[in-house]
Amino acid sequence: MFQRLLLPAWLKPANHCLLCDEHSEHSISGICTACELELPWLGGQCAACALPLPVDGLVCGSCLKRPPAFDRVIAPWRYAFPVDTLITRFKHQGKLPLGHLLAELLAQHIQHGMNDGLSKPDLLLPVPLAGKRLRQRGFNQAELICQWLSTALEVPVQKRWLIRQIDTPAQQQLDAKTRRRNLRSAFQLMTNAEVKNRHIALVDDVLTTGATAEMLARLLKRAGAAQVDVYCLARTPRPGE
Ligand SMILES: [Zn+2]
Ligand SMILES: [Zn+2]
Fold this sequence. Notes:
alpha/beta; two-stranded antiparallel sheet; disordered N terminus; binds zinc ion; five-stranded parallel β-sheet; 8 helices; globular
């Protein structure tokens, strides 16, 4: 049975929805039922990379052609309004309570999945942020999400096992090929990382092309990881859709 997760105290009082500020009798997890229903829930999706698809349970063309190194992606939402705005406010304006809210909802989504047979990972690893962007932002959003998930799901986190070696240009403006080229040399696994035969979940805020997750999953599998899942808040549709 699905169990409601324990929420931090600041999410609970007053029953005011964090999104619409409406007073709500049925407020769960800090947002009202109306707002929860309006979130862009990811319905039909690729069974591997969670790309939005018209029907569920299929594998998308690119995963068929080139099976990803990660086993599967778990994401509750499409990267669309209002989730895109909420993530932006969390990441670029430092609105941590919004990030915490989204992470709690992601934890509930994963917990639902586990109740339906999804296996629990041994360990959570945040996708590392390049040094320059970390300095600009002051925090790594993936690390924060990872920490909140760790508490909610009771899975340990290792923040320093994956490292980003060089500052790659902001990936969002680049095409898939250039991203892959940049990423190949960008990540390293610490020599003291113990991933052999373990089930790892990589944690990030948004999965766009999946190139970063692919590189990291490959690195972890090469080091002997038994399974690599990707947990993220949102999945972008194919470019142009
Ligand atoms: Zn609301
Ligand atoms: Zn796919």
